[in-house]
Amino acid sequence: MVQSLYYGLITGVVLVVYSLILYIANLYMNRPLGYVSMVLLVGGMVWGTYEFRTKYSNGFLTYGQAFKLSFMIGLFSAVITAVYTFIFAEFIYPGLAQEILEKAREEMINSSTTYTEEQIEMGLEWTRKFTSPVMMAILDVITKAFFSVILALLAALFLKKEDPSLKTSI
After folding, report:
1. Among 10, 17, 53, 101, which is disulfide-ready with 61 (CB 3.0 to 4.6 Å)?
2. Rounded average pLDDT over 82-109
């Protein structure tokens, strides 16, 4: 558990630094660059689990151990990034919610689907409900936890290494 906290903290800090770089470069609303954070999350989960297997587990991990460790790294990093998201949206850039709403309006207007003004306003009302700093932080944890489950399931397939001395033959 301590190791997953350690690697989750490092992964979370890397994600926060990446997010700050995007903000400073005025690229924080660039969706494709946002997906890089998922790559960094996977990297942190795999790196932490591999390091644990190598340093603390004599080179062996069961699938369940690898999954649990990878997931916990993802979850701890999600908490770190959620705290950052709240601080960012509340104090660093309080205009973020308004910018998200403006971008959502622009995307609806420029969409191939024709929306009435009433439909656009209804969509923006729903968007507004999820763009408060608290809601963005909560959604950040939920989203990263969900993806951490999926990513940990996959990563554990490649990071498991059963100890052959524990196999019993009947």
Report:
1. 53
2. 94
